[in-house]
């Protein structure tokens, strides 16, 4: 084989990953867009798209078409293959877990929730998670090429240990990634080419939510994206800078839940008082509304139900909404002053608060921050259902995005 022919093959293979990521994130809906984004010839883009199609990762419309109102030569439409491979994504939270199969494009194919008390031994809940995922895979008949896990704790790299699982009974430093990988092996869940079983990935749930929103949701196009949210217990935050998660030196960056918003407030797990973590999460809301949490449903579901059904009729619920909005706004204002993001996305209960009285929340941020007074910091609700699950899937998909041919065919 001549050097020229070899170099052409190498260039073609090196373009597969960037091309797949462009289709995966929706930035190349046509072959013309792929050509422009990659900066290659039309012939090269066509060959790359055909190779990705042969791997079962994307589809190429055989009949070119132009979008309504556009001019120029029609181009073949590209899309992720709706029947292509999937990854197993899982999330553990204070009230249980959720497992899902997720395809390219952040599309959830199937999901299975599990509720209950999370045991002190992470192997127990992660075994249940993988068992649920194995059932989903068996029902779907789809090929699995990886597995990702979202947990309510910073996860140290490269060790894959949970540094601060404050809202779970797990010990500090629990080796969650290794435990997850062992459970995958015991369930014989397949992975990429060359793997006997899938290797597990693990990361903090709000970091993964931010990654998902940036690639597939309300954060698309943001250069400096701040994501803050509260799910079942506690408050988390994440920052995406120039398209990459900022996790700090040991995975503890953006622990926004431990910003003080009420110095005389509730004691926090971190040793301080009045942190966002304990002043704006679902438990704080339920208590502020004068209700008992109750074991029937999760705290998040209880909070959202109260707001949807009783905000307009119960003064206690309305006051609780206003109180949490004011506390959240103070915390966000401090973050705006420090980080100067170009977009803020709120998830979980915080999203519900924003949708209930966004005018009040934006006013608090504007009145309490330097940058907020300019009105140039959009505050948006998260747009993805189960965004931490989608983010966990992104972890598992990354090796495929880096080298599609090697990951699928070896």
Q: How much of the residues is beta strand, in percent?
A: 15-25%
Q: How would you state the average pLDDT, rounded?
A: 89
| Measured distance between first and last alpha carbons | 21 Å
- CATH fold descriptor of the largest domain: Nucleotidyltransferase, domain 5
Helix content: 40-55%
Overall strand count: 14
Total number of helical segments?
13
Largest sheet: 5 strands, mixed
CATH superfamily of the largest domain: ATPase, nucleotide binding domain
Report the uncertain regions: 5-9
Highest-level CATH class of the largest domain: Alpha Beta
Please indicate the count of domains: 3
Q: What is the second-level CATH architecture of the largest domain?
A: 2-Layer Sandwich
Organism: Streptomyces abyssalis
Pfam family, one: ROK
Family: Belongs to the ROK (NagC/XylR) family.
Protein name: Regulatory protein
Description:
It holds the Pfam family ROK. InterPro entries: ATPase_NBD (IPR043129), ROK (IPR000600), WH-like_DNA-bd_sf (IPR036388). This is Regulatory protein. Belongs to the ROK (NagC/XylR) family. A five-stranded mixed β-sheet has the order 5-4-3-6-9, with helices on both faces. Strands 12-11-10-13-14 form a five-stranded mixed β-sheet. A hairpin with a 5-residue loop joins strand 4 and strand 5. Helix 2 packs across helix 3, helix 8 packs across helix 9 and helix 10 crosses helix 11. It has three domains: 78 residues, Orthogonal Bundle (Arc Repressor Mutant, subunit A); 144 residues, Nucleotidyltransferase, domain 5 (2-Layer Sandwich); 161 residues, Nucleotidyltransferase, domain 5, CATH 3.30.420.40. With 410 residues, the protein is α/β, with parallel strands linked by helices. The protein contains 13 helices and 14 strands. It is 43% helix and 17% strand.
